[in-house]
Amino acid sequence: MSFKKTLIAAVIVATPALASAASDISFNPSYFDLYYLPSAKIKASTDFGLGTVTAKDEGDGYGVKTHIGLGQNFFLAGEYQANDYSPEQNDNEEFERDLNIYRFGAGMFIPETPFFVEGEYIGIDIGGNDSTNADEDEDRNGYGVHAGVSSTFGERVTLNAKVGYVDVDDLDGFEYLVGGAFNFTQHLGVFADYRGSDLKGSNDNKLELNEFRTGVRFAF
To answer: For residues 93 and 56, is the Cβ–Cβ distance under 8 A?
Structure first.
């Protein structure tokens, strides 16, 4: 079993354990995150009819995201993330393009539980960077549906996990996220999470993203 499949299975198996150990099953906060991606890996494959061409690269990036609680059960969520893939010399598998991701959605917690469901719009903008033609642009639009759990432990620690399905134009597949946060005060904390997306389409087209994110959380 691959690492990604193992991690997805672990998220699913761990979800009931997180729920049963949670100290607060009605946690629906509002916060704003500023973060950095020390690791942003990509692998893109395209079949042009003469064989499949694969490009892969590792870069970094930055982003902002928010979660706005509406009462005890409902919430709004949004995210903007920019990944920068810097090509290495003499590497024939360079991606050599930038990736901007937009997400806007809403969801709800199942009453009296830490389990939630959410739906979101997803926009992916693949564009040229300084080493390529800046006019090259490829936009993909679609949606994602996820189910997960978010639980607090004591007054300072939050753990969360979710799995879902993503469909953007001619690519679709599974996505997962695991993470946690630590609150220094009521309004200031830090977080870290890991997200993997494995999307496939017709003609052997594929897009794989693996991103580690960490940053500062401002609660309000």
So the answer is: yes
Q: Is 16 helix (H, G, I), strand (E, B) or coil?
A: helix
Residue 40 vs residues 56, 117, 211: alpha-carbon distances, Å: 11, 26, 5
The closest of 40, 58, 30, 53 to 196, measured between CA atoms, is: 40
Helix intervals (H) in 35-171: none
104 has pLDDT over 60: yes
Q: How many CA atoms lie within 13 A of 137 on its CB side?
A: 6
Is pLDDT of 21 > 60?
no
104 CB contacts (<8 Å, ≥6 apart)? 77, 78, 79, 120, 121
Residue among 165, 189, 160 at smallest CA distance from 177: 160
Please say if the pLDDT value at position 23 is more than 70. no
pLDDT at 90: 44
Task: Retrieve residue 208's tokens.
Answer: 């794989």
Give the start-to-end residue ranges of the domains of the chain: 3-219
Q: Which fold has domain 3-219?
A: Lipocalin (2.40.128)
Q: Are 193 and 210 in contact (CB under 8 A)?
A: no
pLDDT at 142 over 60: yes
What is the spatial distance between Cα 172 and Cα 143, in angstroms, rounded to a whole number?
10
* Whole-prediction pTM: 0.85
CA distance 11 to 210: 16
Q: How many CB atoms are located within 10 Å of the residue 93 CB?
A: 13
